[in-house]
């Protein structure tokens, strides 16, 4: 008896899940706009300019998805979220997608019921201090005051690191990167800790970046990536394969500059499938044949997006490192388009 009740419940649940699967894709199409959760402001990753136009490495994901789904990279409503509000904004339906330098972790995947669709930046937590503090290693931060964003993995890693090294510290809680920057600059804390990419972005915005150093220790793994709601499988596929399209495009040498030429001339079967010349993969995820082509045209391939927003020629100055293609010794690897 219990068995059949359980089976009935399971079937009902799967039917509900099945009905809900395409909801977000349908909602976005019907609305004609993608609601994308982003950082309140982290230069290089997501920040509005003086005219309210959002740019950045994470913003590029939102634009690529809008281009793929709606045919227009500008059809995005950017919703600024803090470390504490971001997941609620996603789970409540306020945003369709979260592209906000957020770490994929066990509890977020399971307890918070989020689905991370991939990793767009492999990062790790670091520390920034003023050069005149005379500290050259995180191991020398015994008793230091440290600015830390609440509601983040950073907070937990910091406690773990100091505990495992038998050191004490005084946390100074902050809600946003802007507040952290202010407190750190005002001398309210000796060190600021967050993802190393975030530290580089924060330092780049200082009037005197040369007077601040990022210490050599990386104390955690922070795989950052876009997230959707758990159970929103079809929409998750759309976002996941849009990200992979950007990564695969770089691997195969498809750029925003040569994409039209390659659409006509490429003999690579994978490139032909990616650009919708053959196989029409888009139909499998509720999109047209040229969805990936539009996503790549929105801001370029993964490498172009990296170089334009956070790369070595920008004030952020980040090397590719772990975020190089797998063929170049990095971890960036798109699943096959076939």
Automatic annotation (TrEMBL):
Record carries keyword Signal: yes
Keyword DNA repair applies: no
GO biological process per UniProt: amino acid transport
One Pfam match: SBP_bac_3
Signal sequence bounds: 1-22
Domain of life: Bacteria
Entry keywords, A to Z: Signal, Transport
Domain Solute-binding protein family 3/N-terminal as annotated: residue spans: 33-262
Matching SUPFAM superfamilies: Periplasmic binding protein-like II
Family: Belongs to the bacterial solute-binding protein 3 family.
Protein name: L-glutamine-binding protein /L-glutamate-binding protein /L-aspartate-binding protein /L-asparagine-binding protein
């Amino acid at each position: 008896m219990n068995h059949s009740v359980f089976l009935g419940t399971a079937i009902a649940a799967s039917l509900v899940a099945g009905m809900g699967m395409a909801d977000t894709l349908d909602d976005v199409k019907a609305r004609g706009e993608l609601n994308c959760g982003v950082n309140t402001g982290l230069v290089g990753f997501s920040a509005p300019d003086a005219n309210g136009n959002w740019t950045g490495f994470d913003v590029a994901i939102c634009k690529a998805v809008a281009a793929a789904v709606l045919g227009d990279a500008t059809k995005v409503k950017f919703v600024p979220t803090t470390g504490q509000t971001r997941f609620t904004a996603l789970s409540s339906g306020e945003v369709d997608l979260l592209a906000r330098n957020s770490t994929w972790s066990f509890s977020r995947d399971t307890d918070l019921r989020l689905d991370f669709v991939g990793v767009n930046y492999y990062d790790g937590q670091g520390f920034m201090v003023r050069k005149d503090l005379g500290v050259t290693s995180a191991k020398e931060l015994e008793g230091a005051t440290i600015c830390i964003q609440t509601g983040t993995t950073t907070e937990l890693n910091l406690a773990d690191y100091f505990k495992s090294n038998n050191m004490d510290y005084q946390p100074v809680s902050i809600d946003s990167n802007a507040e952290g920057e202010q407190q750190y600059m005002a001398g309210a804390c000796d060190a600021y800790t967050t993802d190393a990419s975030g530290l580089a972005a924060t330092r780049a915005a200082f009037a005197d970046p040369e007077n601040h150093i990022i210490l050599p220790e990386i104390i955690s793994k922070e795989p950052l990536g876009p997230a959707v709601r758990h159970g929103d499988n079809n929409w998750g596929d759309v976002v996941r394969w849009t990200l992979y399209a950007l990564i695969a495009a770089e691997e195969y040498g498809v750029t925003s500059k040569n994409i039209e030429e390659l659409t006509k001339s490429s003999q690579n079967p994978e490139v032909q499938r990616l650009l919708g010349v053959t196989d029409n993969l888009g139909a499998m995820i509720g999109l047209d044949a040229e969805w990936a082509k539009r996503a790549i045209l929105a801001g370029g391939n993964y490498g172009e997006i990296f170089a334009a927003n956070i790369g070595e020629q920008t004030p952020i100055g980040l090397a590719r490192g772990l975020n190089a293609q797998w063929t170049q010794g990095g971890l960036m690897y798109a699943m096959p388009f076939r």
